[in-house]
Specification:
- The complex is a heterodimer of chains A (278) and B (256).
- Chain A is α/β, with parallel strands linked by helices and 278 residues long.
- Helices cover 27% and strands 18% of the residues of chain A.
- The longest helix of chain A is centred in the first third of the chain and has 16 residues.
- With 256 residues, chain B is of the alpha/beta class.
- Helix content of chain B is 39%, strand content 25%.
- Chain B has a six-stranded mixed sheet with strand order 6-7-8-3-9-10, with helices on both faces. In chain B, strands 2-1-4-5 form a four-stranded antiparallel sheet, with helices on one face.
- In chain B, strand 4 and strand 5 form a beta hairpin.
- In chain B, helix 5 packs across helix 6.
- Chain B starts with a strand and ends in a 5-residue tail after the last helix.
- The chains are: A alpha/beta (278), B alpha/beta (256).
- Chains A and B meet through helix 5 of A and helix 2, helix 4 and helix 5 of B.
Chain lengths: 278, 256
């Protein structure tokens, strides 16, 4: 433990990141630039999220790390170990017990509380990036609230597929002002962005931090005649029987066998424990 | 009648060299002004200054806005100018690739300006896009094709539809027929002339092709080395040129 400063980053860096976080909280949905540090893991593995988590952690915190809904995949395991080693904080797989949850690609099914923080890893924070390659131009579009182009993308979806086919990283408007990329969470999770918990988004390679403070208005973009639809696979979970949770499709053999199971492993395990108890 | 556009002493320098100097003119509603001159005479610089793409060094450009009356475009805030650029103004580039989004379908291209000013009903946007494709003689069944699959003439017509869909009052055109073969040029000119008349559009057309201004423009401005050397009614300037350079320009046209 002695060879690392608490939570790996030095205190000056954590202060710098906290300033960016505070600014992000003050201007919901606005991408705040910050001086992202080199972390002992490759870009794309959650360097942004790790830095935000490091800046938020206190010795009393309990940390949970999610990768695609699961607690036991490589990314989740290694980041959890990283903070166990460098910060010595308690870790958990239970959503309800955690005070800080770092996540990739999912928001937990269990409703989050006001005393919890959700830290989301973001690969590409700019929702307009694939429509407008110039950073100068996209910043101008944000500052002047010129978001027509975002609807052009949704128009193209409907023209080509008959419905809005964007299934993840579905653009939202935060507090009637900034259009934000909620990171590659499935659009099923978009309604959960209006939450009691503080949600922080960190993009390490792109050097951006943004935030959705508790109880902030978050609206998924859509058309009047093609309203937003948080769709999911039309099955119950094969393990716990949940009807309303987001499902992963698991291939079970090479003869076309498949099953649909909850992507949130903690939620699914919880339900099965309750089922056995009852 | 109040002029739609009133330009005074517009000057743009590139370091020591002159882009355009002391340009002044007025444009009335429904009028088409042609600007001709050889390459490097400052036509495109002037057009870019007028459309707000580059900032001139001196002068004023008064535009008669719908709500507030005459306003100096150069002293507007950037959001106001950009708003003007996608509502009351239109800009047709010489190369349709500069004015179109090549990776977005024809319908999306036409609908973009509608969505930029707040249209949020897919069915209505699509109906308007179809209507405009029809008006520029593009078959409705091509609405979901990307512009890359279109011929040069179709791309140019699509660019015009995309610009006119919000019902602008002033349209800037930079060599609208450049790079098209003569029969396609003729159809495009026909189309432009009809649209300008139907919609009561004012237009400023920059070109080096005298045939284009003969067909389209009511008045003509001849530029050389950044200065306006002759102005007048199109037929008057072309049939009875006064300035030596204009005489040279008119006599340089090849007769078939």
């Amino acid at each position: 433990m002695t060879e690392y400063n608490f939570a790996y980053l030095d205190e000056q860096t954590k202060r710098m990141i906290r300033r960016a976080i505070l600014k992000g909280v003050a201007v919901p949905g606005y991408q705040v630039p910050f001086a992202s540090r080199e972390m002992p893991m490759p870009y794309g593995w959650g360097t942004g999220g790790v830095q935000v988590t490091a800046a938020c952690l206190t010795p009393d915190d309990t940390l949970k790390v999610i990768d695609q809904g699961a607690d036991d995949t490589t990314n989740a395991v290694s980041i959890r170990k990283f903070f166990e080693k460098t910060a010595g904080v308690a870790v958990t797989e239970r959503t309800a017990e955690a005070t800080i949850i770092q996540t990739r690609h999912r928001i937990p099914e269990t409703l989050m509380r006001g005393d919890q923080i959700l830290v989301v890893q973001v690969p590409i924070p700019e929702p307009l990036r694939f429509l407008e390659p110039s950073e100068v131009e996209t910043r101008k579009m944000h500052s002047l609230e010129e978001y027509g182009l975002m609807h052009v993308k949704l128009y193209e979806d409907i023209a080509r597929h008959g419905e809005i086919a964007t299934a993840y990283a579905y653009p939202v408007k935060v507090e009637d002002r900034y259009v934000m990329d909620p990171s590659p969470i499935p659009k099923f999770d978009n309604p959960k962005l209006e939450s009691a918990a503080l949600q922080l988004f960190g993009a390490g390679r792109e050097q951006r931090i943004y935030a959705v403070p508790p109880h902030t208005k978050v609206v998924s973009l859509d058309f009047d005649d093609h309203p937003f639809d948080p769709s999911k696979a039309p099955h119950p979970c094969a393990l716990c029987g949940a009807e309303g949770s987001y499902l992963d499709e698991v291939i079970t053999d090479d003869k076309g066998g498949r099953m649909f199971v909850c992507s949130d492993t903690d939620f699914c395990a919880d339900r099965r424990r309750e089922g056995e108890a009852a | 009648m109040t002029p739609l556009l009133d330009v005074q002493a517009l000057t743009k320098r590139y370091g020591g060299r002159i882009g355009c100097a002391d340009v002044a003119f007025t444009l009335y509603p429904g009028e088409v002004l042609g600007i001709v001159g050889e390459s490097g005479s400052g036509k495109s610089t002037l057009l870019s200054c007028l459309a707000g793409h580059i900032a001139p060094d001196a002068g004023q450009v008064m535009f008669h806005t719908r709500v507030e009356g005459p306003r100096d475009v150069l002293r507007m805030s950037e959001p106001e100018r950009r708003m003007l650029g996608r509502t009351d103004w239109a800009f047709v580039h010489q190369n349709p690739r500069d004015g179109l989004r090549m990776r977005i379908s024809a319908g999306g291209n036409v609908g973009e300006r509608l969505m930029a000013v707040g249209a949020r009903h897919y069915g209505e946007i699509r109906a308007q896009a179809l209507d405009w494709l029809d008006r520029v003689e593009i078959a409705g069944e091509r609405i979901d094709d990307r512009p890359a699959a279109f011929s040069g003439g179709m791309q140019q017509r699509l660019q015009i539809a995309r610009n006119l869909v919000t019902g602008p009052r002033l349209i800037f055109m930079d060599e609208p027929t450049g790079g098209l073969d003569v029969s396609v040029q003729a159809r495009l000119l026909d189309l432009l002339r009809r649209l300008v008349r139907q919609m009561g559009l004012s237009a400023i057309v920059v070109t080096h092709d005298l045939a284009v201004v003969r067909l389209l423009a009511d008045r003509l401005m001849v530029m050389k080395d950044g200065h306006v050397i002759e102005t007048g009614l199109t037929d008057q300037v072309l049939d009875d040129p006064q300035a030596p350079y204009t005489q040279l320009l008119v006599s340089s046209v090849l007769q078939v």
